Amino acid sequence: MISIAEFETSFRCYYRPLTMYALRYTENIDDAEDIVQQAFIDTWDKLNEGKNICSLKAYLYRTVRNNCLDYRTPHAEEACEENCKEQEPSEEEQIVRSERDAQLWTAIDRLPQKRKQIFLLAKRDGLSYQEIAEELNISIKTVENQIAAALKTLRNTAIRIYLFFFS
C-alpha cells in the first residue's frame, strides 16, 4: 500500500509529463488534464483496493493512453486517420517527448514573471518584438534583451529542449 505522501509525490512528478502525453492524443489541454486527473483517481482507487502495481509510472502512462484512446470522438478519429498516415512515433518516443516538453514548461515557469510574459508572447503567441513592445509599453531593446536572457536560461536549464519545442 502506497502512502498519501508517496502518491502525492508521484502526482507532482508525473502530472505535467502525463498531461503533455495526453495532449498528443486529445489536442485539447482541458481534455488532457481531465484524463490525467481521472487516471490518478482510478489508480488511487486501485491501490486502496489492495491491487499491486509494480511500476506506477508505466501503469499511469498506460492508463492515460488507454483513456485517451477511449475518449476520442468520431471527429477526432477522422482527423487522426488523416494525420496518422505519416509514421506515428512509438509509445516510448511519445513518453520521452512528453517528459521533455514538461521539463521545458517547468523551466519556463521558473523564469521571472515579466521575462516569462515577454518570452511567451513571442514564442507561443507569435507576436513580433514591435507588437510586444507596444502591448507592454516597453522598448524593443528591452524585449530583445528579455528574450535573449530567457533563451540563455532555457539553454542552460532545459538542455537545448527549447530548440526542439520552438524551432
TrEMBL record:
InterPro entries: RNA_pol_sigma-70-like, RNA_pol_sigma-70_dom, RNA_pol_sigma70_bacteroid, RNA_pol_sigma70_r2, RNA_pol_sigma70_r4_t2, RNA_pol_sigma_r2, RNA_pol_sigma_r3/r4-like, Tscrpt_reg_LuxR_C. Residues 108-162 form the HTH luxR-type domain. SUPFAM superfamilies: Sigma2 domain of RNA polymerase sigma factors, Sigma3 and sigma4 domains of RNA polymerase sigma factors. The keyword Methyltransferase does not apply. Keywords: Sigma factor, Transcription, Transcription regulation. Pfam families: Sigma70_r2, Sigma70_r4_2. The keyword Nuclease does not apply. Belongs to the sigma-70 factor family. ECF subfamily. This is RNA polymerase sigma-70 factor.
